[in-house]
Amino acid sequence: MDNLSNELLQNAMVDFCSGKITEEQSVILLNWIERDDSNRKCFNDFCESWRLSAYLAENNFNTEEALKRVKESINEKGISLDR
Asked: How many C-beta neighbours within 10 Å does residue 33 have?
């Protein structure tokens, strides 16, 4: 993450996503994002992961139940996972 410390950028991204970002953090984060396309992609990926994790937490997403349903669907279609 360039010359900025990973912790500083991570804190700024967390604070941005949680709506608690300071003006100083905003300037640092914006400069870092605009410096390189890979930084912009990293930021966008982080925000998307944050959004999805919040959605899953709010909706009490049960990974075990989801996996069970996927397996049942595969079995119903007669698809073999053994290769």
From this structure: 17
What lies within 8 Å, CB to CB, of 8 at 6+ separation is 28
Please state the separation of Cα 29 from the chain's center in Å.
Answer: 17
Spatial contact of 71 and 41, defined as CB atoms under 8 Å apart: no
> Quick check: helix, strand or coil at residue 3?
coil
CA-CA distances (angstroms) from residue 65 to 39, 42, 76? 36, 31, 16
Half-sphere exposure of 47 (CA within 13 A, CB side): 14
In this structure, are residues 32 and 69 in contact, taking their beta carbons and an 8 Å threshold?
no
Residue 2 and residue 37 in contact, taking contact as beta carbons nearer than 8 Å: no
Report if pTM > 0.85.
Answer: no
Give per-residue pLDDT as tens, 40-56.
999 999 999 988 887 77
